[in-house]
Amino acid sequence: QASLDQQNTKLGKEALNYAINAINFLLASARLMVSEEIGLSEQQRQTLRIRNYIRSRKTVSRREVYRAFHLSKKDMTEIENTLVEAGYIYADTNYRSMIYTAI
């Protein structure tokens, strides 16, 4: 019986430590997400979302980004220029369409 109680206590401590580590990880992740969004203008948030969208897909067409985010041509061009100038993406034409590649 004493051995069983020790195992339960050990398992309880391991589970508690696992839960604490999981919560700390989630808090750190949430802080990062919030810090990326707070204090940004809507245009900056949209640029960040598009940068992450392109990064997650590695290569994507301008048309796909345009449709996914329902942007005006002017806004799309401004965001494209911002991302290219900042070195986040590479923009190149592939026959008739513009292709973005995450850097």
What can you see in these coordinates?
This protein is α+β, with helices and mostly antiparallel strands and 103 residues long. It has 2 domains: 1-38; 41-103, Winged helix-like DNA-binding domain superfamily/Winged helix DNA-binding domain (Arc Repressor Mutant, subunit A, Orthogonal Bundle). Helices cover 71% and strands 15% of the residues. The protein is built from 4 helices and 3 strands, in the order H-H-E-H-H-E-E. The chain has a 3-stranded antiparallel beta sheet. It is elongated and about 70 Å long. The protein starts with a helix and ends with a strand.
In short:
InterPro entries: WH-like_DNA-bd_sf (IPR036388), WH_DNA-bd_sf (IPR036390). By secondary structure, the protein is an alpha+beta fold.
**Level-2 CATH architecture of the largest domain:** Orthogonal Bundle
Compressed to H and E, one letter per element, the order equals: HHEHHEE
User: Can you tell me the CATH superfamily of the largest domain?
Assistant: Winged helix-like DNA-binding domain superfamily/Winged helix DNA-binding domain
Secondary structure category: alpha+beta
> How large, in whole angstroms, is the Cα Rg?
23 Å
CATH class of the largest domain: Mainly Alpha
Unreliable runs: none
Helix percentage range: over 70%
Largest sheet: 3 strands, antiparallel
What is the 3D shape?
elongated
Instruction: Write down how many β-strands occur, each being a DSSP E stretch of 2 or more residues.
Output: 3
First CA to last CA: what distance? 60 Å
* Total domain count: 2
β content, as a range?
5-15%
User: What is the average per-residue confidence, as pLDDT, rounded to a whole number?
Assistant: 83
CATH topology assignment of the largest domain: Arc Repressor Mutant, subunit A
Give the neighbour order of strands across the main sheet.
1-3-2
Counted by DSSP, the helix tally is: 4
